[in-house]
Amino acid sequence: MAGGDHELKLLGSTNPSPFVTRVELALALKGLSYDLVAIDLNNKSDLLLASNPVHHKVPVLIHDGKPISESRIILEYLDDAFPSTYPLLPSDPHHRAVARFWAAYIDDKYVASWGSVYVGKMEEERAERMRQMVAAVEALEGLLKEGKKPFFSGEIVRLVDVTLGALIPRTKANEVLSGTIVIDDVRTPQLAAWVERFCELDVARKVLPSVDEVVEYIKMRLAQRATAADASKK
């Protein structure tokens, strides 16, 4: 794999993280070699605390000793730092801006609805979050339909595809746990076909965690939260 004289280290997690997966997908697409350091987020290392002193979260990419935090920022940084490798952003300024908009939309509208779907205290709150999730999916369906291309930015996988593609295992795990299918062949046929295409990519087969692994992790986290909530009532 490429990498030249650059040292790349990725601080990830001992548990499946779609945000770490984003960076792994981008690094694989760009053919960049790196060292993956799995961090136990229940016992955060000094390296993580020093590398991301504000949020203490993963992923963090350390490039030649300099840390970069937040998955979407890391993806754009990789394009800037390694411009001769696989481009995640198109060259046209307008197309780049549009890609950034939709990448942010995925996190702000789709990912943001996850938590309360499962741990919201009120049924009405969970139902509203589910409606928001479905609305975000339908907007992405419309984007694919408008573009009439196999991927969001055209014929090849780019920023928006990587941003959303890393979420596929979590999306499928959410569907298993909630019993509600948010991406299906009837309501969102373009997006369902995109999911299949993305999962057939070599980089996706290599990097994406299994749905079963993600389901078990979410169950564990929900159980931990339930235990903590019970303890706080005593």
TrEMBL record:
Domain GST C-terminal positions: 92-229
Catalytic activity: RX + glutathione = an S-substituted glutathione + a halide anion + H(+)
Domain GST N-terminal: 7-86
Gene3D superfamilies per UniProt: 1.20.1050.10, Glutaredoxin (3.40.30.10)
GO molecular function: glutathione transferase activity
Pfam families reported in the protein's UniProt record: GST_N
Amino-acid biosynthesis as UniProt keyword: no
Annotated compartments: Cytoplasm, Cytosol
Class of the enzyme per the UniProt entry, highest EC level: transferase
Keyword set, alphabetical order: Cytoplasm, Transferase
GO biological process: glutathione metabolic process; toxin catabolic process
InterPro entries in the record: Glutathione-S-Trfase_C-like, Glutathione-S-Trfase_C_sf, Glutathione_S-Trfase, Glutathione_S-Trfase_N, GST_C_Tau, Omega/Tau-like, Thioredoxin-like_sf
EC assignment: 2.5.1.18
GO cellular component term of the entry, any: cytosol
Superkingdom, taxonomy of origin: Eukaryota
Family under the similarity heading: Belongs to the GST superfamily. Tau family.
Protein's job: Is involved in the conjugation of reduced glutathione to a wide number of exogenous and endogenous hydrophobic electrophiles.
Listed name of the protein: Glutathione S-transferase
